[in-house]
Write a structure and sequence with these properties.
Layout: E1 5-9, E2 15-18, H1 25-36, E3 44-50, E4 53-63, E5 67-76, H2 79-89, E6 92-98, E7 105-108, E8 130-134, E9 137-145, E10 152-160, H3 161-212
Antiparallel strand pairs: 1-2, 1-5, 3-4, 4-5, 6-7, 6-10, 8-9, 9-10
């Protein structure tokens, strides 16, 4: 089923085997508490942090036909999932996880050389757009917590204002260029029209001046 993590637990919630090799005491205790908190043996679907990494976790009882254990299958919220969501949504997607005393784990669709600061996200208002400055760019950011029982997990959606406004800036620049071209053409036509209109008047004025000076041989233009 392409799970990134599989953990087998005994009926008491003790870890028997794991694809991670070894689990921390904290992770084993959290899984044991989950099993103990589900006396009906229902399938559990939830988000959990396991050793600092976020997973979409599914716990199902192993029946034969009585419960003989549990299987926990985890699907990592990693860069691949963030990239898939980014292609669907058209914005950059990130998952920021970690407790208050732990370093943040970030899975994101943003290129590694362009990774943006996530320091301001922890103190930002939830479900309210805000701006993060990254170099010369401003990043419109929206964050919302994902419900997780054992740590902070936040979904972050981001879009560069520079790239978002680029199509509008291109249209604006095209309109300025077209307007400037039309103004230049109109100016040239106005000059040519003015010259063609004033030339007969100039010739008539010159003829009148010569007649006034006594030169009656001048030919007055029709």
């Amino acid at each position: 089923i392409n799970a990134d993590l599989v953990i087998v637990l005994n009926p008491d919630g003790q870890s028997v085997a794991s694809t991670l090799g070894s689990l921390s005491v904290k992770a084993r205790g959290a899984l044991k508490d989950l099993i103990a908190g589900d006396p009906d043996g229902d399938i559990l679907q939830l988000y959990r942090l396991i050793d600092g990494r976020p997973y979409q976790l599914v716990l199902a009882p192993v029946l034969a036909p009585e419960p003989i254990g549990w299987t926990a299958m985890g699907f990592a919220l990693d860069d691949g999932v963030a990239a898939d969501m980014s292609r669907l949504l058209g914005v950059d997607v990130s998952f920021v996880a970690g407790g208050e005393a732990e370093p943040a784990y970030v899975a994101t669709s943003v290129n590694r050389q362009e990774r943006r600061p996530f320091v301001a996200i922890s103190s930002a208002p939830n479900a309210t757009p805000f701006i993060i400055t990254a170099g010369n760019d401003k990043i419109l950011t929206w964050s919302d917590p994902i419900r997780s029982a054992n740590g902070h997990l936040t979904l972050v959606l981001q879009r560069s204002l520079t790239s978002a406004l680029r199509p509008y800036n291109d249209v604006r620049d095209s309109m300025f260029a077209i307007g400037a071209l039309l103004l230049a053409v109109a100016s040239v036509l106005a000059i040519l029209l003015a010259r063609s209109t004033t030339k007969p008047i100039e010739e008539l004025t010159k003829a009148a001046e010569r007649l006034e000076a006594g030169d009656y041989s001048v030919e007055v233009p029709p």
